[in-house]
Amino acid sequence: MRADRLVSTLLLMQARGTVTARELAEQLEISIATARRDLEALSAAGIPVYPQRGRGGGWQLLGGARTDLSGLNFGEMQALFTLLGPEAAISPDVAAAVRKLVRALPETFRTSALAASGAVVVDRERWGRVPVPPPELRDRIRDAIVARRRIRFAYRDGEVAADPWGLVDKTGLWYLLADPGGGVRTYRVDRMARLEIDDVTFAPPADLDLDAVWEGIRARLEQRRNAVTAIVRVPAAVVGPLRDVLGARHVRELGVEPDGRLRLEVGSNTTEMLARQLAGWQPEAEVDGPAEVRAALAALGRSLVARYAV
């Protein structure tokens, strides 16, 4: 989990004083891009982590190497424990780390640290059900990733043997990035069953950057999901709700009409699905084209009239 890495990053910096993103990536077995983002997240949260430029530079915890956290000021302590608190609520390992960190604080900070760690609640269940895999399944996959061990699992109608590269949390949906032979593939973790960890080890590509891999996969998926587009005119007040429902990547602003309405390009994976998505925004959404989408909307309208007209 990310909270585990943030704690490990901070403690490593306390022990060494200065680390580079590459050194951190090697120690924690993550990509350099992920290490850099974790360092930036600690800095943005108010923890005194700063980049040192030039030869022999890196990232430094202000005040030098420390092992007892006593160098954190009150605001920095609050930022750290607010960042870790939500993960501690769902991970016994993070909860144990938070307890140890609390004991390492000066006595005057401990009560506030505990209050900060409980100040944020994370509800991982969306309005609308998102399948959540058991935490123990994710933990076993993570263990296999760290140990570089091949896994076997049931997926849909078959058995898969693959080298696990990493996990992705996509707003509550968990994906495994793994190589079953011939290149990386994605697997929904909530659809996996009967997971077994083999004794066979593997070596991931030397230049593996999981963030870049996922970005490429996401771009291809989004392209497929926007295979069909329509030009739509809507009042400005409708644009925000339309983006919330359809997703920001499926709604693109093209300009403003003379009457004040906004001209949009709206995408989906098929003509029929796009028509269904736009039908609920009538009469505010006026679809200019293409003709196939307008025809699909008209067919939906006729079907509704035939069924519900009185």
So, CATH architecture of the largest domain? Orthogonal Bundle
Sheet of most strands: 5 strands, antiparallel
Compute the separation of the termini in Å: 56 Å
Task: Count every helix, treating DSSP H or I runs of 4 or more residues as helices.
Answer: 11
The computed structural class is alpha+beta
Strand order, biggest sheet?
A: 7-6-5-4-8
Question: Can you describe what's shown?
Answer:
There is one protein chain. The protein is of the alpha+beta class and 310 residues long. It has 3 domains: 2-117, Arc Repressor Mutant, subunit A (Orthogonal Bundle); 135-208, Roll (SH3 type barrels), CATH 2.30.30; 226-308, Alpha-Beta Plaits (2-Layer Sandwich), CATH 3.30.70. The chain has 11 helices and 12 strands. Helix 1 (2-16) packs antiparallel against helix 4 (74-88) and helix 2 packs across helix 3. It is globular. 23% of the residues are buried. The model has no long low-confidence stretch (mean pLDDT 82).
Topology:
Elements: H1 2-16, E1 18-19, H2 21-28, H3 32-44, E2 49-52, E3 58-61, H4 74-88, H5 92-104, H6 107-117, H7 135-147, E4 149-155, E5 158-170, E6 173-179, E7 185-188, E8 192-201, H8 210-225, E9 228-234, H9 236-246, E10 251-256, E11 262-268, H10 271-279, E12 286-289, H11 291-308
Antiparallel strand pairs: 1-3, 2-3, 4-5, 4-8, 5-6, 6-7, 9-11, 9-12, 10-11
